[in-house]
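Lecture 7 notes: from sequence to structure.
We start with the chain below.
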Amino acid sequence: MKFDPQKLRDARKAQGIALKELAARIETSPAQVQRLERGQRRLTLDMFLTYCDALGVDPVDMLQERPMVPVIGIINNELEVVPLAPNTPHEAMAPRIISDPENLAAVRWASSGMFSTMKDHLMFFRIDTEGIPDVAWGQRCIIRHSNGSQRIGWLIGKDGQIHIDESFGDAEFNADVIWASPVLAVVPPFLA
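Predicted structure tokens for the same chain:
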């Protein structure tokens, strides 16, 4: 298996660590770190393990291949899924905790205020679901209304009506829901 040195850079960038800071952690120069990340310097096993240790990442995770999945939108403060900004990544790695990443997609939290700790977290769900599967009831889901708008909420069925409960106690009664997919995982940005 050939190792892609770009993974080193991706792991460093995901944690917001500057070249200079990482170079100090592994006791080398920023130029050497940059050469490692570009594949211009031979990566020894010792340096690979030192690099992983400095970032606090498991070397096994760096060697595993994980598929990329589409990021289809951003969750705003009203728990609505809105289009991605042009400078936002449109793909993310499938989380290891989901054994079958086929038909997986994600939305990114852009929330502030009471959800500020969730900023840039990724919420993963299946995009191949049609209608409302039985497993969606009472679960946090990505929900699509008949007008095409999407939101996050808990699906509640009562007296033949569909209600959507939200995290902060609000509810939408008699919702016109055409599709729902339970959330499978929420992953912080440094693990995505």
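Points to note: The longest helix spans residues 45-55. The beta strands are 68-75, 80-82, 91-93, 104-109, 122-126, 140-145, 150-158, 161-165, 171-172, 177-187.
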